[in-house]
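Thread: Newbie trying to understand structure tokens

Hi all, I'm a second-year student working on a class project, and my supervisor (Dr. K.) asked me to get a predicted structure for one chain before our next meeting. I've only ever worked with sequences, so writing a 3D structure as a token string is new to me. If someone could post the tokens and maybe explain what I'm looking at, I'd be very grateful. Here's the chain:
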Amino acid sequence: MKFKLFKKYLIYTFLTGISFSLYNCGIFQKTYSYTSCDSTETVVSNVIRKELTGIQDTTTVKINGTLLENKEPQFGTKLKFINILTKKIDSTETDFDGNYNIELNNGIYKIVANTEYNRQTNLGMFTFKSGELWILDFDFEVTEMFVESVIEFKSKRDYKKYLEKIGK
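---
Reply by user tm_fold:
Sure, no problem. This is what the structure looks like when written as tokens:
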């Protein structure tokens, strides 16, 4: 048995005269890898109180409530009330204790909270009728999960192409 080393190739010659390259089989080939860490958020919103507290003689709907995140009051969070039919957006902001109030026309509304880092959280869809007085309290939980991924490349050229593609 003889071993010969030629620039990156190791050729093993059997006594039978058969030769093969271990480098081409990938045994001695250098691998290039790129590791990235991504985070994903999951938001679960709950209506913790939905109560019709009264009816008044008016054409508008009055809504009061509290916005919590993980049971903590949300200060300065913008709440958008989007009328599904007219696409009109009415908005309000929470105070230091997470309380808000708003007066709307009757209709079907999608309620969205714009929290820190411009994250939009859908709080649900509600139908309001003229003259109603509502209390709507929300609590939403945000969980963040980190995922690490490793991409391996067979050649330096493929590795460089990938880095160019993602702008690194």
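A couple of things are worth pointing out once you decode it. The chain has two domains: 1-30, 43-142. Residues 1-27 have pLDDT under 50 and may be disordered. Feel free to ask follow-ups in this thread.
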